[in-house]
Amino acid sequence: MNPSDKSWQSRLNRPPDEITINFVESLTIDQRLYKYDIAGSIAHAQMLCEQKLITRTELTQIKNGLTEIAEKIQQGKFRFDKNHEDIHMVLEAALIKLIGEPGRKLHTGRSRNDQVALDMRLWMRDEIEIADERIRLLQDALLTKAASQQGRQVICGYTHLQRAQPILTGSYLLAYVEQFQRDRSRLTDCRNRLNVCPLGAGALAGTSLPLNRQRTAELLGFTEITRNSLDAVSDRDFAAEFLFCTAMIGMHLSRLAEDWIIFSSREFDLINLDDAFCTSSSMMPQKRNPDMLELIRGKSGSLYGNLIALLTMLKAQPLTYNRDMQEDKKQVFDAADTIAACLDMAAALVKNTHFNQNNIAQNLDQGYPDATALADYLVQKNIPFRTAHQIVGKLIQQCETTGATLSQLPLDQLQKASDQIESDVFQHLGAENVVARYTTAGAAGPNQLNDQIEFWKRNLKKI
Questions:
Q1: CATH number attached to the domain at 9-108
Q2: Active-site residue 10, yes or no?
Q3: What's the fold here for domain 119-362?
Q4: Which pairs with CB-CB distance under 8 Å and at least 24 residues apart come from 286-291?
Q5: Is 160 known to be catalytic?
Q6: What is the per-residue pLDDT across 387-445, written as a single tens digit (0 to 9) for each?
């Protein structure tokens, strides 16, 4: 048999047209699966030997041959033969060329359908652990900044992109730590669900050969085997779930990027981005552009697109395996690469960005961020909240006519609005006083920030 013949060529009367060969080829994409394909093949061969389907000598030859191929690939000395359409056939052909007839026995009881399902699960298991560590490093950068002196700075929090209530910078930063922790939790759940071995399902119906599927799963570190062979070869739920996880990570990164793009503008001037993470303009020499943040924000779109592309590809496929599934790797690999780059960049940005303390302090009380605190003060004086809300609203109208803040209003003017107001009201007004008085668990005050920092120092570990 010609080594360049397709594994399925014997069934057909004519060789494939060159345009067919190029159209079905996936090697340029799936060659990154080589070490997982080799690991799965070695485990499969070990099981075949234990089941007396190949000899101990043949097992040794297969193992040694695959190990030699892996070393050549790692050293850049292996030529990926484009005459073979995917990584599975490239490695099998190379093995047969290297060790001869024993290499032809490796595919015993196995189909490329269950083989690629295995490879993708093995790859994704590792990729999730790598992504988890990248997220943890970003969380650690956020936590470090939250625990620093910058984290104790009072800034204004926003709703509807309008000034709302004062908060601590550290509380703001830890909000993103919470979001990314949910991302890690989702990835962990995804990994647990995909950690099921499909090998032995064959093309779709299993095999009459005496394979020991549990043994193969054990050798590859899976917790269990798939229960239904038809589902095993057609299931790409785990890939869709992984893409959903990456889309959510991308969304959280995009929100952080959007915040900081706005905060770094002259109109806000709340943060200073390091020059190493900015660009300038080819035309306007004064420009200092947050391009890295904009790219993070922009790449969230491709992450969403990957998820929709895979779901669309899967939605109309009849059971069981269809060649459409070859397209899953484009989306999955692209998502993994995109998330890796964005997480690394985000961590670097967090480490090298500083909050502009002087500018924040000068403008802190603009926009009446202590209005809710004044209403709460009146509630403590036994005034119903809705009534207190109206009283404060009218006081703000007075402030707007004079340009004063609430804390700048004289006591007698405050008392005209409510006779329940006393001189102690000034201990409740002003952003610094407001933040210091937050009492509820999880609030944006100093005591709660201390608790959250200690919590994350204890719990921000590898999952």
A1: 1.10.275.10
A2: no
A3: Fumarase C; Chain A, domain 2 (1.20.200)
A4: 290/260, 290/261, 290/264
A5: yes
A6: 999 999 999 999 999 999 999 999 999 999 999 999 999 999 999 999 999 999 999 99
